[in-house]
Amino acid sequence: MKKIALIFVLFLGFTAHSQGLYVEVGKVDSNFKFTNSEGEELANLQHTTQNYMEAGYRRQVFTEGFNVALGLNYNSYGSVGSDNSLNNFFEWDADYLGIVLGFDYALFDIDKLEFHLKATTSLEFMLQGTQTINNQVINLTDTEEFDDNAIFFRGGAGLSYPLTETSSIYLQYLYGQSLGMNDDNNGSTSQEELKINTHMVGIGIRIAIPSKDTDEDNNEESEE
Predict the structure, then answer these.
(1) Direct distance between the N- and C-terminal alpha carbons of the chain, in angstroms, rounded to an integer
(2) 76: closest CA among 99, 101, 98?
(3) For the chain, how many helices (H) and strands (E)?
(4) What phi, psi does 11 have (nearest 5°)?
(5) Cα(5)–Cα(188) distance, rounded to whole angstroms?
(6) What CATH architecture is 2-223?
(7) How many CA atoms lie within 13 A of 85 on its CB side?
(8) What is the pLDDT of residues 143-157, one digit of tens each?
(9) Any idea where the domains of the chain sit in the sequence?
(10) What's the pTM value of the predicted model, to 2 decimals?
């Protein structure tokens, strides 16, 4: 709870001096990696494709072309698989709400088309989720691994293009993975672990917010 409060305070401080906002939507291709108590990985799990959304504030820091962003994201993850030896079918669906901190750097531009690199980290909390085994549906909020807060690290690249003087559109790809989420009920010696791998392709819009200094400069120019 203290971590959430600290992040919230940082969020308020950041937005007070933000230079713009962004809204982003896209597809997230995810897959679950399960390791059992004996350290064996559950085989034959396949990717599923679902949706994600993100919105927040972004500003330039330190040097031209380097930006930091703080926002909220809503991600849906899933995976499917089967065990032919036991004739079992598995399916997972989980929705997470997260706080994301991102950094992007513009490498170069060609005729207004800008290429940038991006890296993010996010702390995500599961809102709801289900696990289906054959005809049985299980609530994931009662499952220890999924009840853990998930920490993701992602990196990738994108392209942006200005629409107007104060707005631009961008397309990007990010690959990411969560840190291992463990089953604490089995004790510290348990090797049970869940990791979520993701591929995200999204499209977004950025809108600049004039800073106080810019408004003062414009007022001074108009008075002259």
Answers:
(1) 53
(2) 98
(3) 3, 10
(4) -60, -45
(5) 28
(6) Beta Barrel (2.40)
(7) 3
(8) 766 767 899 999 999
(9) 2-223
(10) 0.80
